[in-house]
Amino acid sequence: MLTPHDMSPMAAADFESVHQYATRRGLRPETLEYLLDPLVSGLCLGEPEAVSAAMPFVFIDVILCGGGFFTSKEGVGFLPKGLARQLTVEYHAQATSVEDRGEEVAVTWHRPGEAEHLETAAACVLAVPPPQIPPLYGQLTPEQREFLDDAPYARSIHVAFGLDRPTAERAMLVQASRVEHPDLCAFVLEHNLSPRRVPEGAGLVMTHLRGAWSDRNWDLGDDKVVDHVLAGVRRMGILPELERHTVMTHIWRVAPCLIGRRPGDYRAIARFAAGFDPRGRVQPAGGDILGHSTTNSSVASGERAARNLVARLRTEGALTQGRH
Question: Residue 100, SS3?
Fold first, then answer.
């Protein structure tokens, strides 16, 4: 049932939270706290009481059954950079509307100090977060608009620690149970993913905090965020290099960040997917629409949108030399 680009098939199994699932199955409390909870918090920064029981299995499918992490030696930025090389990119510009006019799609956009621009094309892909689609594309049904507006995002405060040496820990990912710490959920050891991500002999650790903590502490000063993380590292007795060998820190505040799926959300995904025309000239793309906030889901979603549009435009003879 688990497909990166469209989680509609999970609707049949989407009727309870992770906590309710563990209770119904009679799982030991340790199984919930040390296995299922880290899988949930690592994928969406959420809590097992609020997230659909399907979500831990998404993580298991991607990491344990899917061959592990796929990444570039240069970092995940290889993907947007590679895409941008194939496209004309307009900077400091904002799209304001997308309209399917039957024979073509019209896109309006503006940039400060310039008159409004109007572009027409045979088709359009809306590769933006779900809540940004309704203000752009006015031809949605009320049900589609409600689904996109209701995307359950977590905000994230996360911290990068630059080290003057790699960590003794060799793992790529260290996850924390809320029993061990109520706020910290994961540490990604970037130098173990690929040594080319950092200067030779250096280390880089990305520290992720739970969404609820980020909400409560969104305006907390950077120094206090770092102090809170370091206090948590001491409490758990892990990654001592963060205290002793940090040479730089950088704090990100990302909103929206990761999408979570509540009980019933996969059924809503199925309804939305069934109501969206795969042959339409306007196609949505992005893991957050029918899947999850992962690179795999996003790439698979973009490929599906491309297949849908290529199939339509080929039948119309629109894919001629020089026209894209």
Answer: strand
Q: Which residue's entry shows tokens 């040496």?
A: 165
| 72 and 35 Cβ atoms separated by less than 8 Å | no
Nearest to 63 by CA among 80, 39, 85: 39
Measure the CA–CA gap between 86 and 241, rounded to whole angstroms.
41
Q: How many CB atoms lie within 10 A of CB 5?
A: 22
Closest CA to 134 of 150, 147, 146, 145: 145
74 touches 80 (CB < 8 A): no
pTM, full prediction: 0.87
β-pairing, 246-259 with 203-209? unpaired
Per-residue pLDDT tens digits for 276-312: 898 999 999 999 999 888 888 888 899 999 999 999 9
Q: Are 99 and 59 a contacting pair, CB within 8 Å?
A: no
According to DSSP H, which parts of the chain are helical? 18-24, 29-31, 37-44, 55-63, 78-84, 133-136, 142-149, 190-193, 211-216, 222-236, 241-244, 265-275, 287-290, 295-316
d(C-alpha 155, C-alpha 44), whole Å = 10
Residues 6+ apart with CB under 8 A from 91: none
**Count of alpha carbons within 13 angstroms of residue 220, beta-carbon side:** 19
Percent of the chain with pLDDT over 70: 96
Residue 219 to residues 155, 229, 233, 253, 299, Cα–Cα distance (Å): 12, 16, 22, 9, 33
Q: Answer whether 256's CB lies under 8 Å from 155's CB.
A: yes
